[in-house]
Amino acid sequence: MTEDAVVDEPDTGPGEDRELLTIGAFAARARLSPKALRLYDRLGLLAPAHVDEATGYRYYRAGQAERARLVAMLRQLDMPLARIAEVVEVGDGPGAAELLGAYWADVEARVAGQRTLAAYLRGRLSGRSSAMYGTFTVETVETAAQVVICEKRHTLVDELPAWIGAALDRLMRAAEECGAVAGVPYVAYHSEVSTESDGPAEACVPVADEAAARAWVERRGRAWETTVRVEPPRRLAYTRITKAQVAHPQILAAFEAVEEWMAARGLTATGPCRELYFADWAATGPEDPACDVAFPVS
């Protein structure tokens, strides 16, 4: 017997599902190649109905054809194997459709971000970046010493917005127990945060009572790796941006505009760059000022 033979399985139910199709016959019915079917088996996405122990030949039931076609189409969407497995296990119906919809929303969000990044890079590579930097107004401001309660995290850029929101929310609530919020919350970047570099980034909230802040950290802050320190007086070079411009990669242009301004004036960064969130994020519209991009300088 060859792997292209057709056999019957007497103990299965009525109809064509009693018949076991060889991999060649099933591939023709599913409009796939035997090579693809072997791959799906190896990946755990579509196992044969029967494997001959003596020959190792794979046999399939006709009813598996629809699942085989579904796996093939999902792979054409570049869906990760784990998510394909979730969809095919749910089967036809609203649940599977919702899983596919959630995946495609992620794809569209990623492509939108890549499209924006590509436009930004085209501007840089074509020499239009200098004109783009001219749209930002850079100024300096002197800040007083302040006590800050902080949470540091290694994170990639895709996870950064969610972490910033959660970390600042935790720290703002902690500040209320430490004499109140005493300044503008900010996020400092000790190293680059991108798709390949994970920082770390540090969320910071100024507080009014240093002793209360240190007691809070001892009592509750260890779960989030929270610390307290005294920030010295600083001179900040900064530019103000809208809520829409906070998104990556648009915010990169703001950082680079400040760096170009500093270089033109012979100023040197004396600490990590930062984003100061002075606006009520939930109440701020896309075109409203929401954040200062800043470097400590001397």
How would you portray this structure in words?
There is one protein chain. With 298 residues, the chain is α+β, with helices and mostly antiparallel strands. It folds into two domains: 88 residues, Multidrug-efflux Transporter Regulator, Chain: A, Domain 2; 159 residues, Multidrug-efflux Transporter 1 Regulator Bmrr, Chain A, CATH 3.20.80. The chain is 40% helix and 21% strand. The chain has nine helices and twelve strands. The strands form two sheets. Strands 5-10-12-11-7-8-6-9 form an eight-stranded antiparallel sheet, with helices on one face. It has a four-stranded antiparallel sheet with strand order 1-2-4-3. Helix 1 packs across helix 3 and helix 4 packs antiparallel against helix 5. The radius of gyration is 29 Å and the shape is elongated. The termini are far apart. About 3% of the residues have low confidence.
User: What is the general shape?
Assistant: elongated
Strand order of the largest sheet: 5-10-12-11-7-8-6-9
Proper CATH architecture of the largest domain: Alpha-Beta Barrel
> Helicity range of the residues?
25-40%
On the 0 to 100 scale, the average pLDDT is: 86
Biggest sheet features: 8 strands, antiparallel
The sequence of SSEs as H and E is EEHHEEHHHHEEHEEHEEHEE
> Structural class of the secondary elements?
alpha+beta
Query: Would you report the number of β strands?
Result: 12
Q: Class of the largest domain, according to the CATH hierarchy?
A: Alpha Beta
Distance between the termini: 83 Å
Counted by DSSP, the helix tally is 9
Uncertain parts: 8-15
- Provide the β-strand percentage band: 15-25%
As for the CATH topology of the largest domain, it is: Multidrug-efflux Transporter 1 Regulator Bmrr, Chain A
Provide the number of structural domains. Answer: 2
CA radius of gyration: 29 Å
Q: What's the CATH superfamily of the largest domain, by name?
A: Regulatory factor, effector binding domain
